[in-house]
Specification:
Layout (H helix, E strand, L loop, with lengths): L1 H19 L6 E7 L5 E9 L6 E9 L4 E2 L5 E4 L7 H12 L12 E5 L11 E4 L12 E10 L11 E9 L8 E5 L10 E12 L7 E10 L6 E10 L1
Antiparallel strand pairs: 1-2, 2-3, 3-4, 3-5, 6-11, 7-8, 8-9, 9-10, 11-12, 12-13
Length: about 240
């Protein structure tokens, strides 16, 4: 009986250890588009693996140039595991309201969405109807993701190959050419040693009187303290 008890205790400890040691996957919240579609914003938040520190990062992107609005991203991490995640989120929100208030943002339409836990979908391809109108009035919108092996960013040496990406907007109609929406020439340090990418979602917005816009959300799988972490980036453009 004592041998059996020891085996059961060991099994429990191994199981408990597997639960404790896990990478940190941020939660994504779409904040939306400015009224004219010129800005796209989203938040990622969670509790950092290893430290237990809560964080909230807000990203504000110029959809015409696919670049960050001046003064962003806004990153808040509270280096105290006793502080609530809600406090970190509240602080990042307060810092962002001078850029564009949450009340001014329009969520748009989630034309496609796959969580990082989705196993049946193609992580490198997504095709959607840009808005819920049937029969469709718009051309299909398709994106494909290609991973690229690039030089390691500083601080990522000996952590496996560094991975960048190319995002294609695939032609779905005759006479239209496939376009490169984004292609990495180097890996920014903000991605923290990326190991791979997947397409998470396509968000669209059709502002009245202005050109419609899109944002492609990508999950970045990166080296974490206790396992692979997932963070998020967005690539924007005009439809």
């Amino acid at each position: 009986m004592s041998v059996l008890r020891n085996v059961l205790v060991l099994a429990f400890l191994l199981f408990a250890s597997s639960l404790v040691r896990a990478g940190d996957t941020a939660t994504v919240k779409i904040l939306g588009f400015s009224a004219d579609g010129g800005i796209f914003a989203f938040e990622e938040y969670g509790v950092q693996d290893g430290s237990g520190f809560p964080y909230s990062n807000r990203f504000y992107i110029d959809t015409a140039t696919d670049t960050f609005i001046s003064g962003t991203p806004i990153r808040v991490r509270l280096d105290n595991e006793q502080v609530s995640l809600e406090e970190a989120r509240s602080r990042s929100k307060d810092k962002a309201q001078s850029i564009v208030s949450d009340e001014e943002l329009n969520e748009g339409f989630s034309a496609g969405w796959n969580a990082v836990t989705e196993l049946s979908a193609d992580p490198h391809r997504m095709m959607v109807n840009p808005r819920p109108i049937f029969p469709p009035l718009d051309d299909r919108l398709e994106f494909r993701l290609e991973e690229l092996t690039l030089n390691q960013p500083a601080g990522c040496e000996n952590l496996g190959k560094a991975v960048g990406f190319r995002l294609l907007r695939v032609a779905t109609e005759p006479g239209v050419q496939t376009q490169i929406v984004h292609e990495d020439s180097e890996i920014p340090a903000s991605r923290s040693c990326p190991l791979g990418y997947s397409i998470v979602g396509v968000q669209t917005y059709f502002p009245e009187g202005d050109e419609p816009v899109f944002a492609v959300l990508l999950a970045v799988r990166q080296v974490g303290f206790e396992g692979p972490d997932h963070r998020f980036i967005a690539v924007t453009g005009r439809l």
